[in-house]
Amino acid sequence: MICFNGHKSDKLWKISEWEFFLDDLAEGHLEPDGQVCLELNREYDDSLYTPELKEYFEARGAEVHTQRVLFNPLRPAPSAVAQAAR
Predict the structure, then answer these.
(1) Which residues pair with 36 in a beta bridge?
(2) Could you give phi then psi for residue 15, rounded to 5 degrees?
(3) What is the domain partition of the chain in residue ranges?
Protein backbone atom coordinates (compact mmCIF):
# COMPACT_ATOMS: atom_id res chain seq x y z
CA MET A 1 0.00 0.00 0.00
CA ILE A 2 1.20 3.50 -0.78
CA CYS A 3 1.48 5.45 2.46
CA PHE A 4 4.29 7.85 1.59
CA ASN A 5 2.34 10.14 -0.75
CA GLY A 6 0.56 12.23 1.89
CA HIS A 7 -2.33 9.77 2.11
CA LYS A 8 -5.40 11.17 3.89
CA SER A 9 -3.87 14.62 4.26
CA ASP A 10 -3.72 17.92 2.40
CA LYS A 11 -0.28 16.89 1.12
CA LEU A 12 -1.50 14.17 -1.26
CA TRP A 13 0.91 13.80 -4.16
CA LYS A 14 0.12 15.48 -7.43
CA ILE A 15 1.48 14.57 -10.86
CA SER A 16 4.79 16.40 -10.30
CA GLU A 17 5.60 14.30 -7.20
CA TRP A 18 4.64 11.06 -8.94
CA GLU A 19 6.71 12.07 -11.96
CA PHE A 20 9.78 12.67 -9.78
CA PHE A 21 9.29 9.33 -7.98
CA LEU A 22 8.67 7.29 -11.14
CA ASP A 23 11.52 8.97 -13.04
CA ASP A 24 13.87 8.21 -10.14
CA LEU A 25 12.80 4.56 -10.17
CA ALA A 26 13.24 4.32 -13.94
CA GLU A 27 16.59 6.08 -14.05
CA GLY A 28 18.30 4.71 -10.99
CA HIS A 29 16.66 1.60 -9.62
CA LEU A 30 14.93 -0.50 -12.29
CA GLU A 31 16.32 -2.69 -14.99
CA PRO A 32 15.33 -1.41 -18.47
CA ASP A 33 12.24 -3.65 -18.56
CA GLY A 34 11.58 -3.44 -14.82
CA GLN A 35 8.05 -3.39 -13.43
CA VAL A 36 6.41 -1.23 -10.80
CA CYS A 37 3.24 -2.33 -9.05
CA LEU A 38 1.47 0.18 -6.81
CA GLU A 39 -1.52 -0.48 -4.60
CA LEU A 40 -3.17 2.79 -3.63
CA ASN A 41 -5.16 3.46 -0.49
CA ARG A 42 -8.59 5.06 -0.61
CA GLU A 43 -8.87 8.63 0.59
CA TYR A 44 -11.54 9.93 2.98
CA ASP A 45 -13.78 10.73 -0.02
CA ASP A 46 -13.34 7.08 -1.22
CA SER A 47 -11.26 8.17 -4.23
CA LEU A 48 -7.96 6.55 -5.20
CA TYR A 49 -6.62 9.15 -7.65
CA THR A 50 -7.82 12.09 -9.70
CA PRO A 51 -8.84 11.55 -13.33
CA GLU A 52 -5.72 13.53 -14.32
CA LEU A 53 -3.45 11.26 -12.28
CA LYS A 54 -5.07 8.15 -13.79
CA GLU A 55 -4.46 9.62 -17.26
CA TYR A 56 -0.85 10.36 -16.32
CA PHE A 57 -0.28 6.80 -15.09
CA GLU A 58 -1.80 5.39 -18.29
CA ALA A 59 0.34 7.73 -20.42
CA ARG A 60 3.38 6.21 -18.70
CA GLY A 61 2.22 2.75 -19.74
CA ALA A 62 0.32 1.69 -16.62
CA GLU A 63 -2.59 -0.68 -16.48
CA VAL A 64 -4.94 0.83 -13.90
CA HIS A 65 -7.17 -1.69 -12.13
CA THR A 66 -9.04 0.22 -9.42
CA GLN A 67 -6.51 0.23 -6.53
CA ARG A 68 -3.69 -1.50 -8.39
CA VAL A 69 -1.49 0.38 -10.86
CA LEU A 70 0.93 -1.80 -12.84
CA PHE A 71 3.72 -0.37 -14.97
CA ASN A 72 5.00 -3.24 -17.10
CA PRO A 73 7.54 -1.80 -17.98
CA LEU A 74 7.62 1.79 -16.76
CA ARG A 75 7.59 4.20 -19.72
CA PRO A 76 9.09 7.70 -19.63
CA ALA A 77 6.65 10.55 -19.05
CA PRO A 78 5.25 11.90 -22.32
CA SER A 79 6.29 15.53 -22.73
CA ALA A 80 2.70 16.81 -23.07
CA VAL A 81 1.64 15.15 -19.83
CA ALA A 82 4.85 16.20 -18.07
CA GLN A 83 4.30 19.81 -19.11
CA ALA A 84 0.72 19.76 -17.80
CA ALA A 85 2.05 18.55 -14.45
CA ARG A 86 4.16 21.68 -13.92
Answers:
(1) 71
(2) -55, -40
(3) 17-85
